[in-house]
Design brief:
Layout (H helix, E strand, L loop, with lengths): L1 H20 L2 H4 L4 H10 L5 H10 L1 H11 L5 H19 L3 H33 L4 H57 L9
C-alpha cells in the first residue's frame, strides 16, 4: 500500500501542476499575434520589445525567434522557429512520462498486493486449515484492498495522462499555425529592417 499511496501523491501533484501550467491563456495568448503584427507594421521593434515578447509565454518565445530573424529568408526563419518549437514542446510534455508510468504501475502494484494476500491466505490454510475465518479474511481483505487502491490510482492517472497528451498536441498545432501566420505576415509586408538596438 505504501508505494500505491506514494504514486497517488505524485499523480495528484503532477495533475494539478499540469492543469495550472497548460492553460491556453498562459501558453498561447490569443492577443499575442495581433500585438506582434502591430509592432512590425509600426516599425516599433527593438531588442527590448522582442525580449518582452520572448518572456510573455511559450508562444512568445517562438514568435520572438521569428522576430530575431526578420532579415532572413522564409526557410531560415521557419528552421529557427522549428528549433525553438521543439524546446517549447519538450517543456509542455514535462512530467507526462512520469504520470504515464504511475498509470501503468499502480494497477500492477495492486496486483502484487493481491498475490501477496493470496499467498498469506494459502499459508494460513496450510498451517491452520480452513477453520479460522478471521485469519483467512485478513489475507483476502488485503488482496482486495490493494487491488482496489491500485486501480483507484491507475485509472485517473491514465485518464489525465491521455487528456494532457491531447492538450499538448492541441496547443502545439495552435502555436505552429500562429507562427506560420506570422512568417507569412512578415514576408507579405515587404522589405523588413533589422530590429533597432537600444
Amino acid at each position: 500500500m505504501v508505494p500505491i499511496l506514494l504514486c497517488s501523491v505524485f499523480s495528484v501533484t503532477i495533475t494539478l501542476e499540469r492543469i495550472w501550467f497548460l492553460r491556453r491563456s498562459r501558453i498561447a495568448p490569443n492577443y499575442l499575434l495581433a500585438q506582434v503584427q502591430q509592432l512590425i507594421e509600426r516599425k516599433e521593434l527593438s531588442q527590448d520589445r522582442i525580449s518582452m515578447v520572448n518572456k510573455n509565454s511559450p508562444l512568445g518565445r517562438i514568435l520572438a525567434v521569428a522576430l530575431l530573424n526578420l532579415g532572413r529568408n522564409r526557410e531560415v526563419m521557419k528552421d529557427a522557429i522549428q528549433e525553438s518549437g521543439r524546446v517549447v514542446i519538450h517543456e509542455l510534455q514535462r512530467y507526462l512520462n512520469s504520470l504515464g508510468t504511475i498509470a501503468a504501475i499502480s494497477p500492477l502494484l495492486g496486483l502484487l498486493g493481491t498475490v501477496i494476500g493470496m499467498i498469506k491466505v494459502f499459508a494460513v490454510i496450510s498451517t491452520m486449515g480452513v477453520g479460522d475465518p478471521a485469519a483467512l479474511s485478513d489475507g483476502i481483505s488485503q488482496a482486495l484492498i490493494t487491488t482496489a487502491a491500485g486501480l483507484s490510482v491507475g485509472i485517473p492517472s491514465l485518464m489525465f495522462h491521455r487528456y494532457f497528451n491531447g492538450r499538448v498536441n492541441e496547443l502545439t498545432v495552435s502555436m505552429e499555425q500562429t507562427a506560420l501566420h506570422l512568417v507569412e505576415f512578415i514576408h507579405g509586408v515587404g522589405e523588413m529592417t533589422s530590429p533597432k538596438s537600444t
